[in-house]
Amino acid sequence: MIQMLEVRWSHIATAAASGILFSLSFRLNQYFDEQFVYSAGISLLFLPAGVKLLAVLVGRLSAIVGLLVVGIYLGAGIWPDKSMASVVYFAIVSLMTYPIAAFGLMRLLHIRHDLSNLRYHHIVLLSLAASVLNGIVHNLLYITQGVTSSEELWQKSAAMALGDFMGCFVVVALFHAATGVLRGERNRTPLE
């Protein structure tokens, strides 16, 4: 019973941490809007995409729940003129592109569940797959909501994919480098 409660608390902590980090990265990214906004809802450097991908890779289902809750909250603020059903639908669709792309590619590339064999080229491929899928799906959804016209689909999908890729690559590469440094420190033997 105690072990089950510990697992549940760790899931709650993972969900909360993922949501908070996603929200903070979203707010941080707004400071870059002047330099990187391509059009409504599209930034050429979108750090929250990287936080989302990293959270999905590390936190799995718990992270997805936290990201969804915060995605709905942020979406309601971004699209106050849309119905809550549209905001929820949009949050679900835009979130699920990341685990679909990441877990599909992890299986294809034989990346272990614990990410112990994650390599630099995997980061590039995971970032690219998640970004391209998200850019296309996001803009298809934008068409249904009247944000993007069908004539702009490929142009805006490419711009969003680029921004998401840059955000994914930056965040996941920094995480990979940090874990490499920590592993190196742990494996280093003290000098006598």
Which helices and strands appear, and what pairs or packs with what?
Blueprint: H1 2-30, H2 33-36, E1 37-39, E2 42-43, H3 47-78, H4 84-109, H5 120-144, H6 153-187
Antiparallel strand pairs: 1-2
Helix pairs in contact: 1-3, 3-4, 3-6, 4-5, 5-6
Describe this protein's structure.
The protein is an all-alpha fold. 79% of the residues lie in helices and 3% in strands. The protein is built from 6 helices and 2 strands, in the order ααββαααα.
Number of domains: 1
Q: Could you name the CATH class?
A: Mainly Alpha
C-alpha termini separation: 45 Å
Number of strands: 2
**Secondary-structure element order, N to C:** HHEEHHHH
Structural class: mainly alpha
Average pLDDT, rounded to a whole number, is 84
Identify the strand order in the major beta sheet. Answer: 1-2
Annotation keywords:
6 helices, two-stranded antiparallel sheet, 192 residues, Arp2/3 complex 21 kDa subunit ARPC3, globular, mainly alpha
Concise description?
The chain has a two-stranded antiparallel ribbon. Helix 1 (2-30) packs across helix 3 (47-78), helix 3 packs antiparallel against helix 4 and helix 5 packs antiparallel against helix 6 (153-187). It has 192 residues and is mainly alpha-helical.
